[in-house]
Amino acid sequence: MSDYRVLPGPxxxxxxxAASMGIRLPNPGEAHINGVITSEEAAYEEAARQFLMAKxxxxxxxxxxxxAWNEKAAKKATAIRHLFNTLKECxxxxxxxxxxxxxxxxxxxxxxxxxxEINPNHxxxxxxxxxxxxxxxxxxxxxxxxxxxxxxxxxxxCYTIAMCAQAGHEDAMLSIRDTSVEKIMRLADTIKRLxxxxxxxxxxxx
Amino acid sequence: MSKERIQISEALYDIMPSDYQDLxxxxxxxxxxxGWKDIGTSKELIEQHSLCAGCPESMAFRYILASLPNPEDTxxxxxxxxxxxxxxxxxxHNIHSLFGNQNAIASGLKRALSVRFPDRVKxxxxxxxxxxxxxxxxxMTLQAWFRQEKFTTICFDNELYANTGGQESGLMQKGxxxxxxxxxxxxxxxRLPEIARESGCHYVVNCTVSKPxxxxxxxxxxxxxAREIGPTYLQLYTPCxxxxxxxxxxxxxxxxxxxxxxxxxxxxxxxxxPAKQLLTELAAKDKERKAAAKQLAAQAQAN
Amino acid sequence: MAEIKSVIxxxxxxxxxxxxxxxMMNEAPRxxxxxxxxxxxxxxxxxxxxxxxxxYPITPQSEAAALIGELFAEGYIGDYFRGESEFAVxxxxxxxxxxxxxxxxxxxxxxxxxxxxxxxxxxxxxxxxQMIVTCRGINSPLSIQPDTLEIAYLLNTGMLVWHAETAQDxxxxxxxxxxxxxxxxxxxxxALCCDGFFVTHTKxxxxxxxxxxxxxxxxxxxxxxxxxxxxCPPVRxxxxxxxxxxxxxxxxxxxxxxxxxxxxVERSRKHSIHWLNGLIDTENTDADIVIVASGTAVSQGxxxxxxxxxxxxxxxxxxxxxxxxxPEEEIREATKNAKHIFVPEFNVxxxxxxxxxxSVPNHQRVHAGxxxxxxxxxxxxxxxxxxxxxxxxxxxxLAGRGS
Lengths: 206, 303, 403
Hints:
Chain A is of the alpha/beta class.
């Protein structure tokens, strides 16, 4: 078992891939928090807690859900909207939930508009511009998600969560695997259940 | 992908950047008679580019993307060079892997798509520069033609290596002084159109991109013939204004000058017999379709 | 989009049943068959639900590549053709993999070297192509004989690299290899290497799975990167765009991309251990002397151990199955009791010994040898001799007869 922990940054000029530090992905039915394998239940709780604590909790939906390329994708998009609406209902005044798409993976020149999108080649622009302190990746292809997650960990203090349709992401601080519509709804339910029990970080400076 | 599948999820439509909203609203995916005239009235498949101001290659890109007969089921293959700075911005799946291997990539790709989608049309179109097509990749360019691989090869001929700063290429004119040709190029411009014909291409055109209607015609022909019969080759003059010492606004004139009857880009075309037959059939079908549409419109008006 | 699970139990056009791979490999009855290594490659491919195989002649893989052509003619492979060179073939394989196909190819020696530019591209593009490498000499003067030097060049490409000892390994690992390299968290090409001729051209008894069972098909929509077929988002997609425009954050993207490839190699550990029952096999590693080897050097090492036993010298064995991922922890553990570690190799530079030296404490324990190369055989006696010499025991020379 590795001593390395996947924690909010800024970690390093070039942070390592968590996998090369010995962090292993969860098996089906499991999740991870900070690189430590946990139950999915614990991961939902922690993800909800992080969201409810954050000043700018943000959902980054990727191409796999932004595009209605099959029925499942469209349903996931609806679930993600529900998650965002739930988040808006459950935060306290001063918290600012955001929903910002990662519509594609192309390097955009000279740069993206950080108000309307996030891009895996320079994700920090969107994190910094909007002062995002907790985010969730969902519907992003695994390769591009990992690129982004490492860059975010390297240069920002944002807490990253990955809801992955495949095997999960050890480069995020928290990851749930085999994400389905039901799992997205379950996260929304957990946020609703924990509403009012978590103190937002609003008071602290920056 | 049918046009219907290039759709944004309804629940997240409002957060999509406007260029994608425009793309699903007014791009010409699935439009049967799409062409260069759509430019200006519809959303183009190329979103932006980082080419030099006035670069004829950017014009060529726009005309080609407006003219592909089936963009919703077309995959393009590029190579290293100025084109690869444009390709990320193109709303058609496309591949860059190495310098010069584009026709090998396209061979494997076309076969994979035929295995996976045996009952569907999936067009493959290669678009690469002259260094990639004629110098480093010549073997794979020709071998794909010998094998009668069913895809279109487009060469953007700017007669030099533009992206690396203007070095001599095989398609450069004899005598031109360039980097790596310090006393002028010592041998003739490689005659790839002739070689293409002898190598088994069923449709070969050598021209400039000065006339969008001409580009539209040759692109449609090349893609249709490649789909049904065998390899096709287009060599399009897209001068590098930067490296031949021209200004931004002089690209068009340079092309017009080079397409005069005695010049190296005077329009030349070769069509094989089976390809001629196909073009005749397609023209007849097109006529029929247009007549039917006209009749339908007239009926609608009468009603 | 078809779900893989729903395919299991149904039949392909050849009447083979798509079978859960774990059941097929571990529970289905096996039939002992007497085949050459090349024929075994063909039999594995018959069961692999392979979409595209691309061939090129080079000894000693030509026979296998041609036999797979027969499979294509019989209808077991989606498409098959001869490319014009290994460089082109590996690019054609890439094209097919970009288009969502399960791809197979074979190469050897100078062909591996000619194609080399493709391999880091394959890995960088996350293409789960499987390539058999039947190793032979690569330097001038030309040699078609077994020599494993080319493996050293593959180790830093980002590909998974496995080294089969026997034809049985080959049969099992071709099929299991797809299961590992197609995992979405791995999704990397696999170079499945063997020592040419020794494995390809000798006959051996190999236990085959039933011919009417085959792997579930590859599902390109589980890929960690978009498949280039215009059937999946995003529609505006280049595989793969240049992310190295001159500013800090894009250099970071390229760096992160490279790290992700090697992270994927790391992630393959879990799956490789699952399918191969560990990255290494060990025997008697409590002994003072341990031979660590890969490929047919393992077989020679095993024979040397038998000879040494007759003389009262006890010796352990470590068979290294995967070179990438590199079983560092496993080798360290297996050699912790060893006072001497011997690494017999079929190449002149001793790349395996170098890897082991970099992995174990007290690396002076590692004896890089014996080596043979250029197609020489490795008689077990020379391993015995190397070990006895190191132990200060009297030994003989196999060099010749004297004048």
